[in-house]
Amino acid sequence: MDVNKLLEGVKCSCGKFHSCDIEHVYICSGAIGKLTELCKSYQNVLIVADQNTYAAAGEKTEAALEGKVCNKVIFSGNKILVPDEAAIAEVNQNLAGADLIVGIGSGVIQDLCKYVSHFASLPYMIVATAPSMDGYASDGAAMILGGMKETVKAGLPRAIIADTDVIRNAPMEMIKAGFGDIIGKYSALNDWKLSQAITGEYFCGYIYDMTLDMVHQTQGLAKGLLQRDEESIKVLMEALVIVGILMSFAGSSRPASGSEHHLSHFFEIVGIVSGEEYLPHGIDVAFSTVITANIRDKILNSSMPAAIYRESNEAYEAKIHSIYKEVAQGCIELQERVGNYAADRMSVYAQKHEQICAILEEMPSGEEINAILELVELDMSEFYKLYSDEKIQNAILYSKDLKDRYTVLWLYYDLYGGAQ
């Protein structure tokens, strides 16, 4: 698909004109050289990277910028970079005189640049160093603010530069993460359709179908990705960027982020507040997609109870505080605002039981998702080895409290939360 053609926008049968404000996407060999022309109207460029991403593409980027670099923020490559207030402050402290930010990296670097550029009213471009996630073209920045994982509405890059000479040499774990992030759309898309049926949320068939096409296309890349085949890497990167554009079309991350991302965010947040290890985001999303598929399978094979499940307020708050510690109150307040716990959807579940089951049956089973992940040598035992049964069960029941979005996790909790 011609990504730049998609950027021209789509007049959709859903009644909306879908648009995305990114000006250019280059995914090819030698793409970094495009920066010279793209940056001809800028004079002072701030580079943001970490030591690893700068090593991957820093020299090429600086050469293409032809002496316009006024400052650099290079984070340590020896520890996990968290996109929090401290990282934001470090970038902000080096903005003086810059008229453009150029990020060199993937997930966290992208989110930092997106966030800072938006609130500083400065344009930015991103030089991708790995085909590891779908956020390059989305307008949401995944940040850790006040200890909470928040997706902040922010700006879009003027350009996305993905040089296949660089991204094909990314760590294999990051390539697998990109594959896993796309496979996770099986879960996200099913959650979107489920929410439309249960809550009446906006839904677009065009965006849904195109995202699902990207999933099917990506499945066939596994062998080439393991071999770092340039064309396979290029197609994966295109899929990741297209899914990001589709998020912009939808006006939210809904087509690409659902219960599988909630689980991934749970492991990350709990890991941060408790000082515990967690897997890279895309890998966690991949494995969590197996878990959410298993949840769908369990719902389909269980009889519907007579009433929804609810804990007492005291028991619920005690559980949330034991899991989330210093960020627990933020979760509680979020759910109070959203009103999910106050909602009794039992009549809707009963009335739409056949439709709900039909939706849940549309996506592959947990066993089938696991087989897809094995194509790129993602071993589910790695997930179970790192996370205890208790942590996984807590994630299934309480990762929903991190977000305001209805997913299969709410359906499962409402119907079977008390059976654990």
Q: Can you describe this structure in just a few lines?
A:
This protein is of the alpha/beta class and 420 residues long. The protein folds into two domains: 168 residues, Rossmann fold (3-Layer(aba) Sandwich), CATH 3.40.50.1970; 191 residues, Dehydroquinate synthase-like, alpha domain (Up-down Bundle).
Describe the model.
54% of the residues lie in helices and 12% in strands. It has 420 residues and is of the alpha/beta class. It folds into two domains: 3-170, Rossmann fold, CATH 3.40.50; 177-201 and 254-419, Dehydroquinate synthase-like, alpha domain (Up-down Bundle). The model has no long low-confidence stretch (mean pLDDT 94).
**Percent of residues in helical segments?**
40-55%
Q: Provide the spatial order of strands within the biggest beta sheet.
A: 3-10-7-6-4-5
**CA(first)-CA(last) distance:** 46 Å
Number of strands: 10
Structural class by SSE content: alpha/beta
The oligomerization state is: single chain
Which consecutive residue ranges, at least 5 long each, have pLDDT under 50?
none
Beta-strand residue fraction: 5-15%
Q: How is the CATH topology of the largest domain named?
A: Dehydroquinate synthase-like, alpha domain
Number of continuous helical runs: 21
The largest β sheet comes out as:
6 strands, parallel
CATH-defined architecture of the largest domain: Up-down Bundle
Number of domains: 2
Based on Cα principal axes, name the global outline: globular
Quote the average pLDDT: 94
The CATH C-level name of the largest domain is Mainly Alpha
Task: Report Rg.
Answer: 21 Å
